[in-house]
Amino acid sequence: MLALDTIRGVRIVADPAGIESIVVAVGDVVLRLAPDDVFVLIDGPLESVDVDAIIVEESGFVGCWLTPAEVEARLVPHIEWPLPANRPVLAQGLIAGVPAKLWLATDRALLLCARPYAHDLAERLR
Amino acid sequence: MTGTGRIVVDGQPIDYEPGDSIALAVLRAGQHPARGGTLCLAGDCGNCVAQVDGTAWIRTCQTACRPGTLVQRHPALGAPPLQPVAQPDVTRPPAARSVAVRRIAVDLVVIGAGDSGRAAAASARTAGRDVLVLDASDDAEVVAIYGGPAVIVRSSTGMLHVHAHEIVVATGAAELQPVCPGNRLAGLLTARAAERLHAAGVDLGVAVAVGTPPSGVPCTNLAGRLVRFEGVDRVSAVVMAGGAGEAGDEAGGAAAGEAVVEVTTPCQTVILGLGRAPRDLLARMSADLPVRVVGPAAESFALPPAPTAGIVCPCAGVGVDDLEGVWERGFQELELVKRASLAGTGTCQGSVCLPHVRAWVAARTGTVPEPFTARPASRQITLAEAAADVHLDAFKRTPLHDEHLALGGQLDRFAGWWRPWTYGDHVAEYWAVREAVSIGDVSTLGKLIVSGPDVVEFLERLYPNRVADLRPGRSRYALLLNERGHLIDDGMIVREAETRFVLTFTSGGAANAEMWVRDWIETWGLRVHVLDRTMSLAAINVTGPLAAELLARAGLDAPLRFLDHHHADVAGVPCHVMRLSFTGEASFELHHPVDRSVELWRSLLDLGHDLGIRPHGLRALFGLRLEKGHVIVGMDSELDSTPHRLGMDWAVRMDKPEFVGRSALARTALLPDQRRLVGLTMPGPAPTEGSPIWSDGTIVGHVSSSFSSPLLGQAVMLGWQKRAPFPDEVTIDDRTAIVTAPPFYDPEGLRARA
Q1: CB-based contact A77 B527, cutoff 8 Å
Q2: Would you say the ipTM is above 0.95?
Q3: In this complex, is the C-beta atom of A72 within 8 Å of any C-beta atom belonging to chain B?
Q4: Model pTM score
Q5: I need a surface site. Which of B53, B91, B410, B436 has the fewest CB within 10 A?
Q6: Which of A31, A34, A28 is nearest to A13 (CA)?
Q7: Contacts of residue B449 in chain A, CB cutoff 8 Å?
């Protein structure tokens, strides 16, 4: 059974310019959930030029890091949609029937879902 | 290829030869794989289906023999028998085991590896396309095509789901079967089936051919029009008419009114070469999908003569007389004939009967109708195959799920969430709220942050009450209406700053509310950001006359007035504290990070131990709010409930120039009052929710919520009256109930504001 732990970070909803203005360090994982919504996996404050941006600490996601081989073996059999080919990339859709996100890099991947779905996702990916 | 061996058919062993299908082995033994009916041995018809190794509706002509295979035929009609209910595995059939699923994505799927399929595949490959060819003979039987498009394939190793950009159906053509009296007898074969049996060394006995004769099969070719088959169980003679000495007059039944000379020919097997029809079952379930049909499957073969007697649809047992019956009742289109007679609704979905039914309809209308549609699956598949890797909707869990279970909570599914219904004694939970302090898990409430320079204008347009005059630090209850003025949700507007608000919604309506908010922002082109925090923030409602004392113990010293809110640490957990009330008592909603919820919950229980604290579930909560007359959207409201009908005009400011639903409310305000939600009380236990409300012997409405109030000692209810004039006294459960304006408890709201 996959152990899904809290994935902490900072969530920012802002206009596109406000999103683009966010300064992160090299190597920080930045998940663009929507054109106006980004989740940055860092432990610290972030700022945006958009004065009305919504910036909050986010602890509502759980997830786990996987190797590409683990993605192939444990996730792909439960994914009905084709995985995107480019890397890094954020894919969002149903995994084992649960709304989930999958960030794919060349050497690793991050499986994410909202915490209320954690139990079902872990159970189904046994 | 299997070797020799024996299968068991209806308890009797039957030998088989290498390569035999079950149907072939049974025919080799001189029997029929079902009980009767023309055999095609190509998988087109349902005349050879039987139960094989516990799985029903198996086409035995497509199923290879294996040693010890258990075959059961239906005792009467060739349909498989029902599972005896006494079998211990009736709720868990053998096929309930997990079925593996593989998924692949290709550019083009070609279904059928015949000449046209191979040609289509070769052409596509030459063009550089990624092609997958699927054919049942290669252990890849296509059973369905769905939108996407997705092709569902059954194989011996499990299911294959293929996602493709385009599909080519190259399934060829099927042979026509006869429709005339006696066509359910054994001993009837299509020409190709006869050729296969002859090649396999099966003795056909005295064989005659009707129509185009088979190739290389010893038989006597009969001339004329097919009239009927004769025999008991198995054909013993065929009767032809009107063509003595002439072979090749394609058969299908005598023309009405024709003077015929009938010729009876004794035989043991009748071989039928009556023509062909497109094998288009998969094509017929693919309307509006990128599906191309090629080869014989796309040809317009000549229809057979319109049948005049006999079984047309052997799968559903529909005869010509049945077609006439539905026609006389007014079902005079092909799709209607299908639905009314059930012709074409059996296992082959019209592969056998469709040409005949089309011909029959065409004879009456003068127009050949388009083929009727088919639906997945094209073959009977087991529930395990259909459900392979299909998941039920996931039900969300709050972070306190395990805490509820540890406290004896009885959880059930409400609005997409697992929620505690009660912790075992809902009356004790009720009294804890009314007399002491209680906590409830309200993490499921919808929570949106909205922010931006246009946010006030947006909220003023969205909600029917005032927003601009709401000061930061204050909150207000609000209805959410659609353009027709009907209630779709409710919740709180919580102002955090000049350009930032938190909006709350009901647990069941949160997802729709978010879409509603986003849609209107986009429609109006306003500069408003939205962040849904429903699943990121948990919430605990601390309620009861001792709630403030409990929170003071938890470090919340600053007093909050009713409808105030602020951010503060509670028991060391950062919370957005909102003072409001759904229970009728002083209540504080603590919105906090979802990963700190267990810590906060346990702290509150510890700190309130000597205050009589206990958690409450939904059962107590529903009663508590009902005493206050608070509606639950979707439970007390209906799809067309306006604020006026709900008695909530106070929540609407018609003096605002515009808001969603205003025009409709202005118009409906001028109409006669046809229905209203009212409060009701009566002595004794609460009636079942949904109970009819009677007046003068007529049902005038129903109870939407009911509760036996421990405090008031009577049943309190909300219910709909749907007939004007609205009586003040009604009958529910044969008892007199009085229409009473809610709230039933603390009508001045003093306790909530205390």
Answers
A1: no
A2: yes
A3: no
A4: 0.77
A5: B91
A6: A34
A7: 13, 54, 56
